[in-house]
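Table 4 source record.
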Amino acid sequence: MKLICIGRNYTDHIEELDNEKPKDPVVFIKPDTSILLKKQPFFIPDFSNDIHHELEVLVKINRVGKHIDRKFAHKYYDEIGLGIDFTARDLQTKLKEKGLPWEKAKAFDGAAVVGKWVSKDNFKDVDDIDFHLEKNGDTVQKGNTMFMLWKINELIEYVSKYFTLKIGDVIFTGTPAGVGSVKPDDVLTGYIGDDQFFSIKVK
């Protein structure tokens, strides 16, 4: 499996990091080794002093597809999840300044939290999903998929131009504003609506 991640998909997050609004989705890949194992804490790596949480709605691919037309994209997933794209912001900034790839800052071991999965039939509209992240009981990120620049079906269409999608692949659909640093002993809890999808401890 592969984790296909979308950057800069919410205007408010683009503005908070002072990035340029992209003409096309920003796409990068995390390997399966970046998935944080279930019931394990997230350990801050020794190569970064500024790890940020980025809360994202996830989509799990359920069939093989290539060059998927947007009108058929809904057939390629039936589960929605929630997760975190951990980012070594200090390292990413250095890499971006040199025009280098981001993988060391985005794809390190444990950098991807994948919470539980639920049927997309639980939602009246996947383009209207409220979600939020609590850090130590305080809400630090909140968003709604209606504010994505590229909605889920558009992302599947776009990504499948470049990568064959396989069963079990996961798309991280982008993060809203509110990203911030994590510290040892922080507890991060993610919700869609009032339903908890994950809770992890930072060490």
